[in-house]
Design goal:
6-stranded parallel sheet; Rossmann fold; Quinone Oxidoreductase, Chain A, domain 1
Amino acid sequence: MKALVKYALEDGAVELRDVPAPQLEPGHVLVAARAVGVCGSDVHMWRNGQSWDITLPLVLGHETAGVIAAVADDVTQWRVGDRVVCETAAKICGVCALCRTGRYNLCPQREGYGAMRDGAFGELLLAEPRVLHRIPDNVSFEQAAMTEPFAVAYTAVVERTDIKPGDLVVVQGAGTIGQLTAQMARLRGAGTIVMLGTGIDAARLAKARDLGVDHTIDITSQDAAEFVRGLGDGLGAHVVIDATGVSIALQQGLELVRPYGTIVKVGWGPQPLGFSLDPLVAKAVTLAGSFSHTWTTWEAVLSLFSSGRLETDRVLGGVYPLEEWEEAFEAMESGRNIKSVMVFS
């Protein structure tokens, strides 16, 4: 089958290849991809900027929507033709304390699609039934392919913060996760949302304003901390969401957050910090990491898609066949698209 493969630890070492199709195994199904979202992590791996372990060669892609193409004899409750999305935890141990208490996203033996296991930028994906969710009838494959990044945003905003109606929320980063966390913060009742970006984010910041963000700031030309101190009671943001992917953003976050506020770090940043964390102590700030998602998160996001509470159509920037993967990746990298989705016939 045709698949998009990262084949070396080098910038640009991604190409379309003919690879063997996965074979059906007991306890599994085969999912035929219909739409797969391009994640920022896919772009990072294209540029060899990932800060996590991967296997090589590797079929990329983990934001999967499709139909079940084959079902093992020992699998019940799923049938060929069912429309599904797939969670990203391709493998978990199932027996550790985290798995047993529903936090399998943090299982030490977790292996993710498009990282340690072959992903969905091909024609078929091998999956255990535990990662499957039914796509509501009124949700398209292209919409469903955005379940995973919205689930990342849901985890960060709903599960790792305590946003209250009227709160001041600052989102650092205007990329996909920044945009989606802003939507989630609005649903949670945030009173004022501020999004920060840089000079290359002009189009994305404009899109954020269209999607309901109250203020956007280009931090290369405006002092974000001074602006935030001019809002509300002047003490700073109740919640800061770091969706930048660079470590230095935490230093800025400590300036922006109010005493007893919360910083949620969802963006990966491999760089050493190089600054003091004393402001974290002085302000009694809660610093929370946010990683991945679990079953209930996916079900909540699909329900929000079905009810129209999330603006998926305005987030989707372009739909591309697999052969045009480079254009889809570049549109994400340059900021032209908040989300690119690749489709399969």
